[in-house]
Amino acid sequence: MHNLIDLQKTLKISFNDQSLLEQSMVHSSYSNENPDFTPIPNERLEFLGDAVLDLIIAEILYQKFFHFTEGEMTKIRAALVRRDTLARIAKNISLGKYLYLGKGEKSSGGRIKPANLAGAFEAMIAAVFLDQGFLAAKALILRLFREELHKIIESGARTDYKSKLQELLQAKGQPIPDYQIVEITGPDHDRIFTIEVRTGKTVLGTGSGKSKKMAEAEAARMALSQLSADFTQ
Q1: Which of 121, 155, 189 is the last residue of a domain?
Q2: SS3 call for 174
C-alpha cells in the first residue's frame, strides 16, 4: 500500500481529515476480509461523489460552453461521467495502487478493473468535496478532466453541425459549403481561430474556437440557426 501523501501530492491537495481520503480507497472486499478495520468501505462516498461530479460537470458545461444546447450538454456530461472515462482518468493518476483490496480481489487484477477505479475516483471526489469544499472539488475536476473535455467536444457532439448544414444545403440544390479562416488571434499555446462558412460569395455563418474543428462547427451552427427556418418553410 502506497502512502496517501503521494496521492495528495498528485492531487495538489492537503487533506484536513486524512481519514476521508483513506475511506475513499477502501473497497468492500477489504472490509469483508477485515471486519475490524476502520474506516468503512467507500460506497457511501461513491454515491456522493457521483452526484458532485454530475453537478460540477453540468456547471462547467453551462458556464464555459454557452453555445451548447441542452441535448448536447446532456450527451457530453454522460460521456464524461461514464465508468470508462472515470477509470481512464483514475489510471492517469495511478489511483489503483492506493486501493485497499481483499486478497481475492487483488489477485484477480482488482487494481486495474474499471469498476473499482471509477468507484474509487467518485469516492475520492466526494472526499475532496467534504474536506475542501465545492470550489476545490471543481478546480480538481477541471484539471483532471481537461483533456477528456477537449477530446469529447472536438470529436463528439459538435461535429454533426457540419454534416447537418451540408445535408440542408444539398436538399435545396445549394453547393457544398466552404470553410475559410478569416482570423487567428492569441499566443501559439492558446490560439483562437475565426472561420466563415460560405456558399460561393455568400457568408452563411461565422464561428470561433480554440481549434479549426471547433471554429468550423460553430460557424456551421450559426449558419444553421439562420438558414433552417427559411429552408424548412
Answers
A1: 155
A2: coil
- List pLDDT tens digits, range 133-180: 999 999 999 999 988 887 776 665 555 788 888 888 888 888 899 999
Amino acid in the structure at residue 132? Q
CA 103 – CA 227 distance, rounded (Å): 62
How many structural domains is the chain composed of? 2
Nearest to 88 by CA among 151, 40, 138: 151
Residue type, 23: Q
- The answer as to whether 103 is a domain residue is yes
Encoded amino acid at 7, one letter: L
Q: Which sequence positions are flagged as catalytic? A: 50, 122
| pLDDT tens sequence across 49-108 | 999 999 999 999 888 776 677 888 898 899 899 999 999 999 999 999 999 999 999 999
User: What's the CA gap between 205 and 218, in Å, rounded?
Assistant: 8
187 and 201 housed in the same domain: yes
Task: Give pTM, 2 decimals.
Answer: 0.70
101 and 207, same domain (yes or no): no
Using alpha carbons, select from 161, 156, 81, 167 the residue that is nearest to residue 125. 81
